[in-house]
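User: Sequence in, structure out. Go.
Assistant: Echoing your sequence, followed by the structure tokens.
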Amino acid sequence: INNGIPFQNLFPFGVVTVTLGLPNIITVRNATFSINGILLIRGQWELDLRGCTVYMGPGAHIKLERNSAPTILKIDRDIFSGNFSTLRASTYCYRMWRGISLGEGNQIYVQNNSTLQDAQFGISVLDKCLLYLENSNFVHNYVSVYFPEFPPAPFNHFTSGSLIEDNYFGLPGLIAGHFQGQFPEPQNNQT
């Protein structure tokens, strides 16, 4: 998946189940694919990755932007195959990817032993987002969950119903190399 492809046209036939309605839901089950560049999910969409392995190219970025309704990203285990979902750096060059950015009011679910690894900022959270991070692994990330500071300070990062529970956050060993133009750049590429 490369820059410039509309979100609703990303996945090959036979892999995706599309359910129309509000929100539009795209479920991808037990697939392995790569994302290079920016995957922009905007508006009333839900992308549901179940049992997938996603290799993220250097500096690749998943951005959720809200229009009139929240945009939702789910990363979960496939209940039929038992496969877990993993988003990680591409193995061909092992460089960090940017991570997942949640625009104001969007939602992310990472659950059931899924893994988010090798990102600069695993999940970047703006105002009034719903986070449901449960029983999953956040490893080899420069920062796993990032809450940027914006002046003025008084605003609410979470909505009611957010949950961060029973996760593993760790840096066993070396983290991936930095991508071109990365800031801040990890120091000494160590834990």
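User: And one key feature?
Assistant: The two ends are 31 Å apart (CA to CA).
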